[in-house]
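ok trying again, last paste got cut off:
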Amino acid sequence: MRSKDFFCLIIGFLCFYSLSVLAQNEDVYDTNNYNPSVADGNIVIDDTQITSDVKQVVHPTFNQIKVSSQQGIVELSGSVNSPSDANQLVKMAESVRGVHGIDTSELTIRGVTNPLPDQMITAKVKGLLLREELSGNPGSSNHIKVKTMNGVVYLSGTAVNSHQANEAEDLAESVSGIKDVKSTITFSQ
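nice, full thing came through this time. structure:
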């Protein structure tokens, strides 16, 4: 098994485990404290749970990163070794259910003064596609490639159908900091 496949398997397991724990802990939420900015479907996920879930996903690989969440926005702080580590970290955090954004303003890359915003955008889009796949939309991230240049997200590859292609475009457009989304996604149906 290739290390990339093994890594994806581990991340999938951790996300699945986190989602199953959430499903088992269906509490009745006080509607007076309902905050739609942290709603995911019909389930409200509080920031304590989001922080815990993100830590479960990122700490096996990035145990020195501090994680906090406020209104569904996860703040990652600390230092990573490379831009690819930063991308991987953001992708992992973005894939967690209930996360509505990632704040990397306190995240640094050792030896780099500017943390490459195009790569962060790519990581966020890939994380959203992965979250969709883990939520029961098979193929959402496997065959769709993401690249960002100067704030423009380029989607390519193959989707199952036009709905899935449109969904990928919508997910990419939901990421803050992008200028445009260009898609050449083809579909088999």
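cool. The chain has a mean pLDDT of 76. Residues 3-24 form the longest helix (22 residues).
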